[in-house]
Design goal:
- By secondary structure, the protein is an alpha+beta fold.
- Helix content is about 20%, strand content about 35%.
- Strand 7, helix 4 and strand 8 form a beta-alpha-beta unit.
- The protein is globular and about 35 Å long.
């Protein structure tokens, strides 16, 4: 795990205002908009009170999968004892839930590439919040080619996620939708 961590650490301050990951062996920098950060903040504040004290949230911390794949999920649930270690990267085996917020440059990565890698490592639940379309995709039942269970729900109702950390209820009302969204739900 030291090699992938060292790779991404080199780019840590190189692209201010961009989220940097290693995807398919390439350094990918996606520009962030206010709706991205606002979505993360709202979901964090809605999830955190539901977590038992032994679980904690991290954001934009490296999760190395292989030399060519090092993701920094917008949010991830890991054991609180690990979060308190305050590391720059964590192994994917610790992650119980991943949340990604789609940006215009991350659509393929979030829906296709990360789906396969998160599921392939057995991460039980994956949520994609999409301010470009105004919906959330919930995924569960990980397999080698991706998640076998998935639902797409337009923003508005509360979404239930049955996870190893417990049943999580995620309100989607009031989540930001990009005003330039071409296909809002």
């Amino acid at each position: 795990m030291d090699r992938p961590r060292a790779q991404l650490a080199r780019f840590q301050d190189a692209f201010p205002g961009y989220r940097t990951e290693i995807v398919e062996g390439n350094v990918v920098a996606c520009p962030l908009r206010p709706s991205h950060a606002r979505t993360i903040y709202q979901i964090w504040s809605r999830l955190e009170p539901q977590l038992d004290p032994e679980w904690s949230l991290i954001s934009d911390v490296a999760i190395p999968f292989a030399e060519d794949f090092e993701f920094c999920p917008d949010l991830a649930v890991i054991p609180a004892a690990e979060q308190r270690r305050n590391l720059i990267s964590y192994p994917p085996d610790l992650v119980e839930l991943v949340v990604e917020v789609v940006s215009s440059g991350s659509v393929r990565h979030d829906y296709e590439v990360k789906d396969r890698h998160y599921a392939g490592r057995g991460i039980p639940n994956y949520l994609i919040l999409d301010p470009l379309r105004g919906h959330v995709s919930t995924m569960w039942n990980p397999g080698t080619d991706g998640y076998r269970g998935r639902d797409v729900v337009p923003y508005g109702p509360e979404v239930a996620v049955e996870s190893p950390v417990g049943r999580l209820m995620i309100r989607t009302d009031g989540l930001p939708v990009d005003p330039k969204a071409s296909h809002p739900s």
